[in-house]
Design brief:
alpha/beta, Rossmann fold, 27% strand, binds adenosine-5'-triphosphate, binds magnesium ion
Length: 242
């Protein structure tokens, strides 16, 4: 794997007395698309929370670009260059599409560059551009997903985290969102995405990790993982079968 931009090392995470991660270690190489796969309740979204500083690991370390970021508050993690497209997108439904996009640039002082980035997003996401003055809540699921991606990119992240980006989308939008993730990556953004649907994720990912009840049970190049029967076994063997 290429040089790591993100590295988790022997992370153990708890919700109260319940342990969710068991010595979780993984790496996301600079410029790569890496997918974290796994069935329901395997600890995927919690991994995102750990990286974003929304939850602190009880032990273990998180490094971004060589710096230890575990223990940092979320705003500092984001300022360091990590963007997030959360589970179920979390757009601001009562705000306009434009206001949602500008929220992604919150804290940036370079107004001119923000304006340029907004233009760039409207070119990259024409469906979002068509709806720029509408309230975000009226957008379809696929459009909201694109808006959430564009909003995250407005912060100029070096690493973008995506939690189940294709969840609940119609097949047409699933393909479009996957294409856009690959395009964002080609433009230089490293991608770490959580997916339940291994077949979809491995279409665009370079590497994958399979999580089963908080433990990595399988990892490797996407080309090798594609069609590997052990993925199915890992899902079915989890606490809650997918
Ligand atoms: N805030 C919380 N408090 C207590 N337990 C939680 C909390 N959030 C998640 N959990 C539990 O931690 C485990 C891992 O949850 P997590 O959301 O990380 O799984 P996931 O792999 O993202 O699942 P899904 O595919 O359903 O999104 C689950 O057993 C879940 O019930
Ligand atoms: Mg989840």
């Amino acid at each position: 794997m290429s040089e790591a931009l993100l590295r988790l090392d022997r992370v153990n995470t708890f919700y109260g007395p319940v342990q969710v991660h068991f010595d979780l270690s993984l790496q996301v190489g600079r410029g790569r698309i890496v997918s974290l796969l796994g069935g329901n309740a395997s600890g995927k979204s919690t991994t995102m929370k750990i990286i974003l500083g929304l939850l602190a690991p009880r032990s273990g370390t998180v490094e971004f670009d060589g710096a230890r970021i575990d223990g940092w508050p979320t705003h500092r993690v984001i300022r360091a260059g990590i963007g997030s497209v959360p589970e179920a997108r979390r757009i601001f439904p009562l705000m306009s599409v434009r206001e949602n996009l500008l929220m992604g640039a919150y804290g940036r002082a370079d107004r001119k560059a923000v304006g340029e980035d907004l233009e760039r997003m409207l070119t990259l996401f024409p469906r979002v551009a068509e709806r720029i003055n509408q309230r975000a809540g009226v957008l379809s699921g696929g459009e909201q997903q694109m808006l959430a991606m564009a909003r995250a990119l407005m912060g100029r992240p070096r690493l973008i985290l995506m939690d189940e980006p294709t969840m609940g989308l119609s097949p047409l939008f699933v393909d479009r969102v996957l294409e856009l993730i690959a395009e964002i990556n080609r433009q230089g953004v490293t991608v770490f995405m959580v997916e339940q649907n291994a077949n979809l994720a491995l279409q665009i990912a370079h590497e994958g990790y399979v999580l089963q009840t908080g433990r990595i049970v399988l990892q490797g190049a996407a080309a090798l993982l594609r069609g590997d029967p052990r993925i199915r076994e890992a899902y079915l063997g989890g606490a809650a079968a997918a």
